Amino acid sequence: MDYVSALVPPVVMAAFFIALVRVIVKTQGGAAKAKEDAAVDAMTRAHSGQSTSGGASTDAS
Known about the structure:
- The chain is mainly α.
- It is 77% helix and 0% strand.
- It contains two helices and no strands.
- The protein has helices at 2-26, 33-54.
- The chain is elongated, with a radius of gyration of 22 Å.
- The mean pLDDT is 82.
């Protein structure tokens, strides 16, 4: 019976991982995709405009 107790945790974790991946795949796209894309585009434009108008670089590299 030790083999059963050794196999249960990985099987349970695999089942939860598969369920998580299925939820992520199912929620991609759909009715909210256009709003999400617009929000990402707006953030990208705001960030690129902010970094070009600043003059000084904020990167420490």
